[in-house]
From TrEMBL:
Cross-referenced NCBIfam families: PME_inhib
Protein name: Pectinesterase
Membrane-crossing residue ranges in chain numbering: 29-52
Family matches, as Pfam families: Pectinesterase (PF01095), PMEI (PF04043)
Pathway: Glycan metabolism; pectin degradation; 2-dehydro-3-deoxy-D-gluconate from pectin: step 1/5
Upper classification of the organism: Eukaryota, Viridiplantae, Streptophyta, Embryophyta, Tracheophyta
Domain of life, per lineage: Eukaryota
Amino acid sequence: MDSIKSFKGYGKVNEIEDQAFRRNTRKRMLIIAVSIVVLLTVIIAAVVGVVVHKSNNDDDNATSSSSTPMTLSDSIKAVCGVTQYPNSCFSSLSSLEKQGTSSNKAADPEELFKLCMEAAVKELSKLSTLPENLIARVNDVREKAALVDCQGLYEEAINQVNTSIFTMQSDGTGNLLTASKIDDMKTWLSAALTDLQTCLDGLEETNSASLDEVRKSMQNSTELTSNSLAIASKILTLLQTFDLNIHRRRKLLGFGFPEWIGPADRKLLQQVNYEPNVTVAKDGTGKFKTITEAVEAVPKQSKSRFVIYVKGGVYEENVVVDKSKWNVMMYGDGKTKTIISGNRSFVGGTPTFATATLVAVGRGFMAMDIGVRNTAGPENHQAVALRSGSDLSVFYRCSFDAYQDTLYAHSNRQFYRDCDISGTIDFIFGNAAVVFQRCNIQPRQPMTNQYNTITAQGKTDPNQNTGISIQRCLISPFDNVTALTYLGRPWKNYSTTVIMQSGIASIVDPTGWIPWIPNTTPPSTIFYAEYYNTGPGSNLDKRVKWEGYKPNITDEQASKFTVASFIRGSDWLPQTTVSYDSSLE
């Protein structure tokens, strides 16, 4: 209480003192305010300095980290970790560790990828003499022919992998890999695996006693090729894992023209009217009387389009456009007027692979307004009209007519538009990345006790970028079909087939699909799907219930099988003047 009184007495001031106090207070407040501003400035500067210093240290550390060579062992583990056969991968790259190699170049996943492909080529080359050695002790004509096919398939597989290795070279901007290069390599490595599997398929269908020996001999080359494909599929992820200057890789702007098409040809391809280099006519009014003669006149590995005009008529010959014949365009007077006809068949003594009336392997093949048929008949079983392994090949307004195995879309990227395809069993088959668009797909009456299967897709490796896409086509009978008819059956463990936005007539059984082995559920690893189809045969209520069958895929899933996404057709089809639908719209 006393203290309070005392305080009050102490605190009492007169007016003059109060004015002086106010003046001094204002002065002190101004000084304090200025001091606070100065102090805050100092504090902020200090904090910023610390942050900047830390940021600089972090950047230095990051730079130091990214510039610090990764261990070769870690890089090999990461690269081999994405493969189907890691033991083979480790073995193929182990020599680097034994040599004590520790350079950035050797540890770079790109370099390891290249070394893995080189190891695959080395193993593939070891197979070159195998068929010849086996042929010497084989008496069966068909088995010998299958071994001859293996010889050519090995050579083609080597070519596919070597082309991938060549693609690894810098493009002049310091970029070893770009998205377009990776897509190319995935295609070619997928094709190499298909070549190897085709050899085994041929020996299996001929009941070859050499099958097991060949399969064992092919094991290393198959595994290393598969590993190369797996690495190609995951290479960008691997590069990000090791923080390897991803920014130095230019953004893909599109394929543009294929690298094997020259500037002059680009101008030609933009024209609708093609000026033929040679004309084929049975009546002698052209330069050649046979198509085979015209193909022989094509320059090897030409970057310019070589145009062959085939006048109306039926040409009874087996035509082969081999891997050395690039950019061949063949056109006729119409698919019912210019016809290539053959009759080779499996029952007639020829392995399926070699029965084709028209074979296209050379890059960039194009056929227009031509019919191709195999007249062997259903009683002769496998008898192919067309076999194509041509990358970036186009078939426009063509017809393909046979019974079993009519159209063999063997490998690489292919596009079919406004074509007619007729057959019975597996009449669209193979392991290409292929899109059929606005085609007439026509099952026909098979032999007694047979049923029709439209497709048989042959994907054997999860990393292959292959499959059959049927978009905006019409599936309807060729003739009076009473046999059960199915959309397809999965030929291999990773078979991939999508039918979308197509009209399906009542000819198709309500179950839609059938297993390769009767009464056996296909593996869950297949991908079979339908998307917005119409017609009485498109009803999904009674479709198969396989785990790998998707009756209603999403827009996003379906878009992966369009021309633009599946074969990247929007980047190369415009230059062919062929009509196409790039998307689902």
